[in-house]
Amino acid sequence: MQYAEITGWGKYTPPAILTNDDLATFIETSDEWIRTRTGIKERRISHINTAEMSALAAKHALASAGIDASELDLIIVATSCPDTLVPNTASRVQQLLGSNNAACFDLSSACTGFLYALQNATAQIRFGAAKKALVIGAERMSWFINWAKRDTAVLFGDGAGAVILEATDKPCGLLNAKLGCDSNARDILSITNFGTDMDRYVNPPSALDIAFQGQDIFKRAVRGMGQATENVMQQAGLSVEDVDLLVPHQANVRIIETLQSKLKLRDDQVMVNIQNYGNTSAATVPIALCEALEQGKVKPGDNIMSAAFGAGLTWGAAYIKWGDKVTASQEYVQQEQEPQNAKQLLSVSIEHCLAKAE
């Protein structure tokens, strides 16, 4: 039987940092208010688009796996922030990487997107349709933010994470998953005035905005992630004692703490980095996984659980049996990106939103 082992991993986090204190200069908020409610201290703002962030994360992952982009059979980009709808963003990533033999597509399942994409790529490898796959979670959420609205402006950030999957006979990689969607409440978390739903004849179109009903989202996230995790553990025949590491979606530290409590896990068994990046949607799980590996939290043969919840309302959980590899084959040397452009773009965006709000 074929399995899909994770043999490479990489992330891209933009160099421009927007702290809670920065936000407090133009929104009625404070560092304490944000931290106590979300766990977030700062977030990254990208000056490059989703495809470029994806490609940089992918280059790190390819170097980590020790393979060339030309060897890839499949590229999946999980994102809610595509650079273009036609053509897809994944084709631009392929172009940037030079992996001209790979099939490419985007996958839109919001914050659960990486788990959806990981299951899809794993299934294609196990079916024999691909041998080497690149799975990316990447978001440029700052592009959608209305900086005049505190409830959403403090939550989101930009970034990308990627993994390489390779066919193997060893029983490792994604072994069990449970994915689903609670579409009856899909409107409580949505980006308005975007896509063919908006009136193209309004001149100019209404500003982009994120509809967000926090309390309802919190309750549904805890329930959806918790039930999915329990389902996957039952499928895999795992007990709480068998879980070595939980890598949850990083939306709110209270959601993570609630899930940790349900699973009765110690702090050192849960990967948390929301304080540094905020909610990067589909990118949170792969970025957190990369940092868990960098920090030595993942060991050969570990049982890793992951869970996520996002717009749609999509939800899911996954069980990953880690293989033997926990150190990168080599490092990708990345030229430093200039952050000042990001600050300039952010300043213009903030001024525009605040002017519209007055």
Automatic annotation (TrEMBL):
GO biological process: fatty acid biosynthetic process
Region (ACP-binding): 250-254
Chief subcellular location: cytoplasm
Keywords: Acyltransferase, Cytoplasm, Fatty acid biosynthesis, Fatty acid metabolism, Lipid biosynthesis, Lipid metabolism, Multifunctional enzyme, Transferase
Cell compartment(s), UniProt: Cytoplasm
Domain of life: Bacteria
Pfam families tied to this protein: ACP_syn_III, ACP_syn_III_C
UniProt cross-references to InterPro entries, sorted A to Z: ACP_syn_III_C, ACP_syn_III_N, FabH, Thiolase-like
Matching SUPFAM superfamilies: Thiolase-like
Domain Beta-ketoacyl-[acyl-carrier-protein] synthase III C-terminal: 233-322
Enzyme kind, highest EC tier: transferase
Catalytic activity field: malonyl-[ACP] + acetyl-CoA + H(+) = 3-oxobutanoyl-[ACP] + CO2 + CoA
Active site: 111, 249, 279
Keyword Cytoplasm: yes
GO molecular function: 3-oxoacyl-[acyl-carrier-protein] synthase activity; beta-ketoacyl-acyl-carrier-protein synthase III activity
KW Acyltransferase (keyword) present: yes
Beta-ketoacyl-[acyl-carrier-protein] synthase III N-terminal domain boundaries: 105-182
Domain characteristics, as noted in the entry: The last Arg residue of the ACP-binding site is essential for the weak association between ACP/AcpP and FabH.
Family matches, as HAMAP family: FabH (MF_01815)
Assembly information from the UniProt record: Homodimer.
Role played: Catalyzes the condensation reaction of fatty acid synthesis by the addition to an acyl acceptor of two carbons from malonyl-ACP. Catalyzes the first condensation reaction which initiates fatty acid synthesis and may therefore play a role in governing the total rate of fatty acid production. Possesses both acetoacetyl-ACP synthase and acetyl transacylase activities. Its substrate specificity determines the biosynthesis of branched-chain and/or straight-chain of fatty acids.
Name of the featured protein: Beta-ketoacyl-[acyl-carrier-protein] synthase III
Organism (species): Thalassotalea mangrovi
Gene that this polypeptide is encoded by: fabH
